[in-house]
Amino acid sequence: MGVGLMQIVGIFMFFTIVIWLRSVEWRVSRRNERWLRERGGEEKDNFRNKAFFFLYHFSIFSILLEILLIKKSVFLISFLPVILFCCLVLLKLWCYMSLGRFWNTKNIQLPHVIVIKKGPYKLIRQPYLFLLTAELFLLPFLFEAYMTAFLFLLVHLVILKVDIPALVKSKLLKKNPI
């Protein structure tokens, strides 16, 4: 028994919400980026932003492909992954609110601004990257797209292995990084 019409409608609605949330996030990021640049902010490296943009969108396509072409049985979305996904969205919101106008998806640094250490940034150096990793892994699990979950987690971790040391190095070279 394949994926039914009601499941396809539910999947479409869920991904519409996910894509809407991501588009709101990018609009806020672009607005904050403009604000930072108006005050002398400089982008240090945009590798992460481009890689994550591609990875995130391609993972959604891969999930849909795995659901529609590879899945042979009807599945039920478990409530635990849905609850975890909602918690991730709320934790990401906490990141945005903690940094305010300083939050964006790029590595933009303002001269003479100290590192902001409030909210989740007191607990983890890069909470947003942690949450993005968790979301990229959890999203396929909502639809039992296990191949996508593990493949994209692996690619994401490779990107982070390259990006995080560069990010830390660029911030440590500045006297007062953001």
Written description of the protein model:
With 178 residues, this protein is mostly helical. 69% of the residues lie in helices and 2% in strands. The chain has five helices and two strands; from the N terminus they run αβααβαα. It has helices spanning 5-38, 47-70, 79-99, 127-142, 146-173, and strands at residues 42-43, 108-109. The protein has a two-stranded antiparallel ribbon with strand order 1-2. α2 runs antiparallel to α5 (146-173) and α3 packs antiparallel against α4. The longest helix is centred in the N-terminal third of the chain and has 34 residues, at 5-38. The protein is elongated, with a radius of gyration of 18 Å. 16% of the residues are buried. The model is unreliable at 172-178 (pLDDT under 50).
Structural class: mainly alpha
Low-confidence stretches: 172-178
User: What would the principal axes of the Cα set say about the shape?
Assistant: elongated
Radius of gyration: 18 Å
First-to-last CA distance: 53 Å
**Percentage of residues in DSSP E strands:** under 5%
Write out the strand line-up for the largest beta sheet, numbering strands in chain order. 1-2
* Number of E-type strands: 2
How many helical stretches? 5
